[in-house]
Amino acid sequence: MSSLFDKENVDIAWCPGCGNFGILKLIREVLEELEVDKKTCVIVSGIGQAAKTPYYIDVNMFGVLHGRALPVATAVKLGNPNLCVVAEGGDGDMYGEGGNHFIHTIRRNVDIVHIVHNNMVYGLTKGQASPTSQKGFVTKVQVGGVVNEPFNPLAVALSLKAGFVSRVNIGDALHAKEVLKAAFRHHGYALVDILQPCPTFNNTNTHHWFKENSYVLDDTYESSDFHGALQKAFEFSPMPLGIIYQDKSSRDIFERSIRGEDAKPLHAMTHDVSKIQDLFNRY
């Protein structure tokens, strides 16, 4: 089914069976179903196979240096807080090269949706281990298997008190869509870590592997329980899927730095260039 956000006459440079196709479809459908205005939406991405995604979506986009999507997305949001801003890229781009920006974007609680394609391998550069590759994972570079502990994005995000932390599996598109919609509706920084296969360079973490090694949190799970969320973040076999944690009282960078403790909702804010410039000077 076509989407209002389809871009015509583009050559999609992904391998057959790549999980990026499902994520591309997911993002297009969520933007359409939430009735996001193309003119007020910006997707920022870095370098990598995942980071090519906004090139295939009919929306404003900004392609930046490897690992630098988050600071640029922050600048876009600070420059015009009325925009819907998305930072999007792969696990290497966001957690490796962009790891430092990942940390400080969470601390600032910028009102952006952060979508990470997590296939546990570097696809663009032909199959090296990424920050989220599991111990023992063998590549042409890590010939004896990965020896480092894998990066845990959910635990890191929670340790910095991120207001919205989630993980989904693109193999369960309906569930992934509901979680991504919730991320767009959240006020403040929102992480959506999307498990996806790389059929060319990762024969371990396949669609079947993700299905067998994950489970969807049921209706009894309380996503507002911070300590419970921390426990879930460290579960691996199987990994929990869904909204791991959400703080609905989250106050973003504008409310904390510009408008003070008695801040009104963001949509009531009048765009004030002098205050925005002051915020840039602070950070």
Sum up the structure in keywords.
283 residues; 16% strand; 10 helices
Mean pLDDT: 91
The shape is globular
Q: Which H/E pattern describes the elements?
A: HEEHEHHEHEHEHEHEHH
Number of strands: 8
User: How much strand content do the residues show?
Assistant: 15-25%
Computed structural class: alpha/beta
Spatially, the strands of the biggest sheet line up as 2-1-3-4-6-5-8-7
Assembly context of the chains: single chain
| Sheet of most strands | 8 strands, mixed
Number of helices: 10
- The separation of the N and C termini measures 43 Å
Low-confidence stretches: 261-270
How much helical structure, as a percent, in the residues?
25-40%
Radius of gyration: 18 Å
Model description:
This protein is α/β, with parallel strands linked by helices and 283 residues long. It has ten helices and eight strands. It has helices at residues 20-33, 69-79, 91-97, 99-108, 153-159, 173-185, 207-212, 226-233, 253-257, 273-282; strands at residues 41-45, 60-63, 84-90, 113-118, 164-169, 190-195, 214-216, 239-246. The chain has an eight-stranded mixed β-sheet, with helices on both faces. β7, α8 (226-233) and β8 (239-246) form a beta-alpha-beta unit. α1 (20-33) packs across α6 (173-185) and α3 packs across α4 (99-108). The radius of gyration is 18 Å and the shape is globular. It starts with 19 loop residues before the first helix and ends with a helix. Residues 261-270 have low confidence and may be disordered.
